[in-house]
Known about the structure:
The protein has about 350 residues and is mainly beta. It has a domain at about 1-135. It has 2 helices and 24 strands. The protein has a 22-stranded mixed sheet that branches.
Amino acid sequence: MRSIPTLVVCFLFPFLPLAAQNESANRSFEKTLPAGRGTKLEIVNRYGDIYITKWDRESALIKAEIEAFAPDREKLDKLISGIDVSITEKGSLIRAETVFEREATVLLETFKSFTEKIIDYGSKVKISYHITVPEYIDIDIRNQFGDITVDDNSGTLSIDLSNGNFRANSLNRIADLKLNLGDAEIGSLKSARIITSFSGIKVNSCDELELKSTSTKFDLGKAGMVELESRRDKFFIDDISTLKGVSWFSEYSIARLSKEADLDLKSGNINIKRVSGSFKSIVLKSAYTDIEADFDPSASWDFEIRHVNSSVVLPGRNTRSREELVNEKRKEYLITGKKGSGDSRGRLMIEANRGNIRLN
Length: 360
């Protein structure tokens, strides 16, 4: 049974005490629309928070509220009347958008100074959405100067967020999370592509993660496959199966690597506190990078280390190695050998130009 669309718009102009020297106004919007399988929800907003929660109904409930403050009634009237919320349905697409008329935009830009993600200097506005949808719905959100919170979602999620934080519980797939100047915390997800700068990302568990990042701190709990392009980032990883990619001036602290790594490291450092005894392959190409790795005592592996102007320390026990000078002018050496006994199940290959290498 299809839900009946409803639209409620109300105005509220409470008077503040004279000491506050501010006029305020609220506008509220509410609409319910059908949302069967295959429905996509788009939200476009600025200057406010977006909250997405789930329910078992085949409909989407969208509530939006505009809160505005200004030094006097004239500015307040121009501000509140120049901001609207458009909620529309076309086919399988539901779209909610905050619309700014030119006069309101000019007024906002005139007084713009962002503090706590809303506008300061006497004139303020905050537009917040509270949306309840089925868990299976696909969602596309663009927001500036506000937070986004999402409950469980088994559809596809796309987020473009700047100057705000992102929080989510359990997600199926993030097609894109673009985050600039904010933090993100995600409970669990199957796969995601994240593009971020000057932010902080925490993911408790994920199966597949693709990262393109700059100056961001990552806290990853249990991770499957992570592929990255990193610049000046810091990674703290509890448990990871596979790590691949390239980085510039980034730092890695990995508690446990279980399967493989294939990294091109251009300055920075990497510390793997425990490599599983059943690891498959570690391939590191590095320049001006310090490398440290502790291998499980049960691991048996072959190694090949080609280095120029590097310091290399090999495991002290049960290690057989051979070193040869490859290029005297470049001070290039090749070290080959084996660690452990029995059949080798893993291999380590390092090509290093300067930096310290310590294997335990």
